[in-house]
Amino acid sequence: MHYLGIALYAEGPTDYYFLRPLLQRLCEDICVRESPHSVEFSEVLALDHSSKTNSAPRQQRIVDAAKAARGVWRVLFVHTDGANNPAQARKQLVQPALALLQQEMAADGCGVAVIPIRETESWAIWDGDALRQVFGTTLSDQDLGLPATAHLVESAADPKVVLRNAFNATQPSGRRKKQGTSPLLNALGEQVSLSRLRQISGFCQFETELKLALLQLQILK
Questions:
Q1: 189-207 mean pLDDT
Q2: Which one, of 92, 83, 26, 20, lies nearest residue 57 by Cα?
Q3: If I label 12, which of 31, 59, 122, 189 is the partner at 20 to 30 A Cα–Cα?
Q4: How does pLDDT run across 137-159, given as a tens digit for each residue?
Q5: For all residues of the chain together, what is the average pLDDT?
Q6: Phi, psi values for residue 89, rounded to 5°
Q7: In this predicted model, what pLDDT tens digit does every residue of 37-46 receive, in sequence order?
Q8: pLDDT at residue 185, as a whole number
Q9: How far apart, in whole angstroms, are the C-alpha atoms of residue 46 and residue 77?
Q10: Is the pLDDT assigned to residue 103 strictly greater than 90?
Q11: What is the DSSP string of 45-102?
């Protein structure tokens, strides 16, 4: 039996809502299909830095948060939105943290970059069935204004607006309308199809990097 502790350092609260259940499901799916071992998982731990490091560079804040949770995680996901230039986002906002983690905490586990080409919401809008279930609607993908192809998902200028417009198309009212999509992102992370996400190039790149980390940890062989 292997134990895989998982942690996430993300850009903002809504990213945690969606990514925590999604990342846990993905790790479980990979290990069930590809690991020769039985693997037990933790829930994805949401990391945050202490107020003492507010003025420190991002990579230092991430490593300090990782050290505070030492012993709890073996895979640490470091998220940033790609803003249509994921290579630059990685270079500036993720790679320095991964390098520092490797330098100071190599024995603790591996860091893995999570970088949607534009925004996290681009992964949430690619599964109309999940959206219909979470939104409680029977509207078609076209009626919801969802992208028709994986390429269009990754080229959508503002996935947050696409998600919000899809939600508004269901004509929400009262408290549900006031709260918007944020409270629904956790359920979307639990429902979105992994097979659909694997049609998106940015997600495939991320999953490949995750598998390499699991190989390094000898979870996969």
A1: 96
A2: 92
A3: 31
A4: 999 999 999 999 999 998 898 99
A5: 95
A6: -60, -40
A7: 899 988 999 9
A8: 96
A9: 10
A10: yes
A11: EEP---GGGTTS-HHHHHHHHHHHTTTT-SEEEEE---TT-HHHHIIIIIHHHHHHHH
Q: From CA 115, how far away is CA 202, in angstroms rounded?
A: 7
Concatenated DSSP letters of 5-55: -EEEE-SSHHHHHHHHHHHHHHHHHHHHHH-SS-EEEPPPEEP---GGGTT
Share of the chain above pLDDT 70, in %: 100
Owner of token pair 């850009």:
11
The DSSP call for residue 3 is E
Long-range contact set of residues 96-105: C-beta below 8 Å, sequence gap at least 24: 96/57, 96/58, 96/59, 97/9, 97/58, 97/59, 97/62, 97/63, 99/59, 100/59, 100/60, 100/62, 100/63, 101/62, 101/63, 101/66, 101/76, 104/63, 104/67, 105/63, 105/66, 105/67, 105/70
